[in-house]
Write a structure and sequence with these properties.
Elements: E1 26-39, E2 46-58, E3 67-70, E4 76-78, E5 80-81, E6 93-97, H1 105-111, E7 115-121, E8 130-136, E9 147-151, E10 154-155, E11 167-171, E12 188-194, E13 200-203, E14 214-215, E15 220-223, E16 233-249, E17 252-267
Parallel strand pairs: 1-17
Antiparallel strand pairs: 1-2, 2-6, 3-4, 3-7, 5-6, 7-8, 9-10, 9-11, 11-15, 12-13, 12-14, 12-16, 16-17
Length: 277
């Protein structure tokens, strides 16, 4: 899960979230449940599936490659090192995706129970392992956001995007988003654009990595024209992530989440024909 997201945004920098005593190997880790929606054109998003995911976001250059997630029932699941993957899924993370998607919350909860999950790994050169718990409760999923596209101040259909102009991605408000009472990280929004081969061509940013990222109060994301090519197809996703619990272990921020993503297919127009004098 993926977990598989900057103009006019109330954005935050890494400095907004102190990282005292943070280990040099892991930036942050997350475990969560996810609901996937699909939107066609300007229509209302329709829920397609539920899924489970967990990610450990690695610091640049760390040799850490092995980690496990301990479930509430004691089972240990090994993370996959996405740095070893060839293709668009390659990333600086350790990843667990559920074996399949689910038609209902009940099915997902039966396969992946709520309760305490533990991230467990051994930092390179350390004499002991790190175990960081976080609780995934019985929270509610936010509503899947409805997406609207604009260029030059006007709404544009998803199949008629002009690649010569910036694309403004707007969405329904993240009304259930909240600030974190622990002041680790607030509920977040991610906006990601992928090309026909599923490579990311634009990403709104991740926390704890020294870059800008989006919070629940943000209302739009501007994708620069430079990220778009004419006569091309793209997959746009807008994710709302409610953080149920945040904490720190060994200085590493960890969080549990209920997240929803709306996927929208975008087509750019072919270039206008050249007019010869």
């Amino acid at each position: 899960m993926i977990a598989p997201g900057l103009a006019c945004l109330a954005l935050a920098f890494l400095a907004s979230f102190p990282a005292a005593a943070q280990t040099r190997d892991v930036n942050f880790a997350v475990v969560g449940k996810h609901a996937g929606y699909e939107q066609t054109g300007a229509g209302k998003p329709r829920r397609q599936y539920y899924s489970f995911f967990s990610e450990i976001f690695l610091a640049d250059g760390t040799p850490l490659a092995e980690a496990t997630l301990v479930r509430p029932d004691g089972r240990e699941i090994r993370f996959t090192d996405q740095r070893a993957v060839v293709g668009p899924s390659r990333d600086r993370i350790l990843l667990i995706r559920g074996d399949r998607t689910y038609d209902s919350e009940a099915e997902l909860d039966e396969e992946w129970p709520n309760g305490e999950y533990v991230f467990r790994y051994s930092p390179p050169g350390a004499t002991d392992s790190v175990s960081i718990p976080v609780r995934l409760g019985e929270g509610r999923y936010p509503q899947g956001p409805q997406v609207r596209l604009e260029q030059n101040g006007e709404q544009v259909p998803s199949d008629s995007v002009d690649s010569t102009f910036d694309l403004v991605v707007r969405y329904t408000p993240f009304d259930s988003g909240r600030a974190d009472p622990r002041e680790i990280v607030d509920d977040m929004i991610f906006v990601i654009l992928r090309d026909e081969e599923n490579y990311k061509v634009d990403h709104s940013g991740r926390p704890f990595q020294g870059q800008r990222f989006m919070l629940y109060s943000d209302t739009e994301r501007v994708i620069p024209a430079a990220a778009l090519a004419p006569a091309s197809r793209y997959a746009l996703s807008v994710e709302f992530a409610i953080l149920e619990e945040t904490s720190r272990g060994r200085g590493v921020p960890v969080m549990s989440t209920r997240a929803v993503t709306t996927a929208l297919e975008i087509h750019t127009l072919p270039p206008l024909p050249q007019i010869m004098d």
